[in-house]
Every structure is written in structure tokens, then in C-alpha cells.
Amino acid sequence: MRVAGHSKWANIKHKKEKEDARRGKIFTKLSRQITVAAREGGPDPAANSRLRLAIEKARAVNMPMENIERAIKRGTGELDGTSYEELVYEGYGPGGVAIMLEVMTDNRNRTASEVRHLFSRYGGSLGESGCVAWMFERRGLVTLDRSTVTDEDELLLVAAEAGADDVTTLDDQIQVQTDPAVLEQVKEHLTRAGYTIASAGLTMIPKSSVEVAGEDAARLMKLLNALEDHDDVQEVYANFDVPDEVLQALEA
Q1: Lowest-confidence range among 88-97, 194-203, 225-234, 239-248?
Q2: How far apart are CA 202 and CA 122, in angstroms?
Q3: 15-76 maps to which CATH number?
Q4: Angle at the Cα of 129 (from 124 to 135), degrees rounded to 5?
Q5: Which sequence spans correspond to the domains of the chain?
């Protein structure tokens, strides 16, 4: 299954994460992920797959080990820290695009108000729970930097042998999609085959996409970027498809 809108948004997010890492902004979000993972499943990455994946994601953007260790200690209670609640918000963007947000917040009323304001500001609307969730499917996703892959045809074969469902090539990364149950298996198989994994984790893939262009596309990208920038928003998923020429014009 290849969904163009998901791939394009993933590519934009990948570039944005690199920029945010340089500014330290993404470290705040990753610290929350590590803290919550340690709180829920314990401090041992070997026994806590969620924590292990969060740490791997943090190390991929060069987050200092002392930051990671502090986040784990906050999760286990060794250090004082804020208690975060995990929430999912759903809504619609310009052009009827379905949007799902994974949120970690210490004040759900504040976050809901701020997210609702962003939707409204850019021509969207925050909806009720369940209004768009049925349009997405939980999947495993392993990402490799494209520059580290010398033979993409060989990668296709290795990924298939590992149990992956699909491989998508983007500008500077390659995404290997899996059933959530075999995510670790695929990741380990690729690692043993000599591939360097940039990131691995669970994601939401849209089952279908909505094409948007013109002013709707411009407003949609502003909304998605504003949501991505919000400190409490951990992940943004959307089922849009924007023509390449429109996307290039918006990124220019």
C-alpha cells in the first residue's frame, strides 16, 4: 500500500525534525515520550519495547544521553517531573482532509483549547472522538536514510524476506512498512543484513487520500505545520494528497 499524501507529509516531517533537533525543540517532545514510556513499562529498554524505540528515536537526532537518562528517571519517579496524559484529537482540515493528533499534556483543557484555535485559524475544525480514526490504520514503520542504501532492489528483497509489507522511497529516506506485530522482527532482520536504521516505531497510515490544491493546500500545510510545532502534539497524521508542483511552490 502506497499513500502519496502520507509519504509527502512524512518527508516534510523528516526534514522538519532535523531542523527542530538543531533548535532543540524536538528534544522536549522526545523527553516526554521517554518519560511516559518509562512510567508505563519500566526503565529497562530491553524489557520495554516502547522505551527502546523512543530512545532510538532520540539518539537518531543526537539527543544527549544525560537528557535521555533524566527523562527515564522522571518516568520512574527518581526525579520530580510533570505527569503527562496521553490523548488523541481528531478533526478536519481545509478540503475535508482527515487529521489525527497524538498528544501528551499536563493540562487537557489548555491543550484542547489551543488545538481547537489552530484548527479554526487555518480553516479546519476539531471534531469528536472517532470522527476520523476509522480512516487510518495502525502500522509499523522502519525508516532508513536513503544515502546509506547502495542497492534499493536488494533492500526490497531483504525487506520482503523479513516480513515487511511495502517499501516506499522518498527524497532522502526509505520507509519500510510492516504489520505492527512484526515491527521488531523486520527491524532486527534489516539490522542483521547490514542496514542502518534511522528510526522505527508505530504510526497511523491513511486508508485513502483526499487531493487538495490551491488555497486549501496552502492553508492545510500551515495548519499541519502549526500543529506539529505545538509542544503538546507528539504526532500529526493526515490523509491528504497535494500535487508535487503545488507542494514545491508551497515549500519555496
Answers
A1: 239-248
A2: 28
A3: 1.10.10.200
A4: 75
A5: 15-76, 85-134+208-242, 136-206
List the one residue out of 170, 164, 157 whose CA is nearest residue 187.
164
Q: Which residue has the higher pLDDT, 21 or 52?
A: 52
pLDDT tens digit sequence for 97-142: 999 999 999 999 999 999 999 999 999 999 999 999 999 999 999 9
> Which architecture, in CATH terms, is 136-206?
2-Layer Sandwich (3.30)
Name residue 200's amino acid: A
* Closest-CA residue to 63 (of 102, 103, 23): 23
Question: What pLDDT, in 10s, does the model give residues 167-190?
Answer: 988 878 899 999 999 999 999 999
Cell of 244: 508535487
- From 3.30.70.980, 3.40.50.10240, 1.10.1200.10, 3.40.630.30, which CATH number describes the 85-134+208-242 domain? 3.30.70.980
- CB-CB contact of 40 with 52 (8 Å): no
Mean pLDDT calculated for residue range 56-68 = 90
Cα–Cα nearest to 172, from 54, 3, 32, 16? 16
Q: Give 26's Cβ-side CA count (13 Å radius).
A: 23
In the chain, DSSP finds a helix count (H) and a strand count (E) of 9, 10
